[in-house]
Amino acid sequence: MNQTYDDTVTKIKPKLDLAEPSLYRVIYLNDEQTSFEFVIESLMAVFDYDENGATEIAKGIHEHGSAVVAVLTYELAEQKGIEVTTLARNNGFPLRVKVEPIV
To answer: 85: domain range?
Structure first.
């Protein structure tokens, strides 16, 4: 049996006007139980700060009640927030982390 097929050409236009992903702030909130040393260690371990940078941010958190520690895409910000929270709970600290969009 001989079958014939119509030649069909589908033209797909690529979407070239892709938007950049939205950015989110990762914010540490100060509390009276989490040690200054733990905050520094978590900033170094999770966000790859050097000791001086982590110390400066930890001072800002302590003095102002909170500080933005990173600006990332949603998925990365959420993952880092979970990592810090898990690390804090495993070490007996109530450190809270907020992730909020940049408007």
So the answer is: 32-101
Task: Decide if 16 is inside a domain.
Answer: no
Mean pLDDT by 10 residues, the chain (103 residues): 63 78 96 96 98 97 97 97 98 97 91
Crossing angle of helices 36-47 and 51-64, rounded to 10° = 130
Number of domains in the chain: 1
DSSP result, the chain: -----------------PPPPPEEEEEEE--SSS-HHHHHHHHHHHH---HHHHHHHHHHHHHHSEEEEEEEEHHHHHHHHHHHHHHHHHTT---EEEEEE--
| Per-residue confidence (pLDDT) for residue 2, from 0 to 100 | 59
